[in-house]
Amino acid sequence: MASQHQPGIAKEYLSLPILLMKEPFLDEDGEQFLWSGFSIVGGADPAIRQRIYNGGIYISNVTPNSPASKCGLKINDKILQVNGYDLTTATLEEARKFMQKYPGLWMLVARTRDIHF
């Protein structure tokens, strides 16, 4: 769940710059493409928005040993920007299409962390 808060537990919010360089990969047909190794959910489309994502684009999966895991992306990171483009109001389809265009992704992500006293 994205940024779910529990009473009595403080949250720390971090904004992290991340550079992800996609790597060449072969699909099942032997066609080469650039692979990032992560999946996204959420988006600003009210027709498909799930309440827990608050309209943002979130990382839902990171493949081990992928470019995404190597650069430090984590499940539940919220993608704020990619290559200077604001994704906070993007639909899921807009975000996917935008990120597929580039071999490298300069990302600004927001990450939460529980602080236990």
TrEMBL record:
Compartments where located: Membrane
Pfam families, alphabetized: PDZ
An example Gene Ontology biological process: receptor localization to synapse
Domain of life: Eukaryota
TM region positions: none
PDZ domain sequence ranges: 37-114
Main subcellular location of this protein, as a coarse class: membrane
Alphabetic keyword roster: Membrane
One GO location term (cellular component): basolateral plasma membrane
GO molecular function, one term: protein kinase binding
Protein name: Tax1-binding protein 3 like protein
Organism name: Argiope bruennichi
Organism lineage string: Eukaryota, Metazoa, Ecdysozoa, Arthropoda, Chelicerata
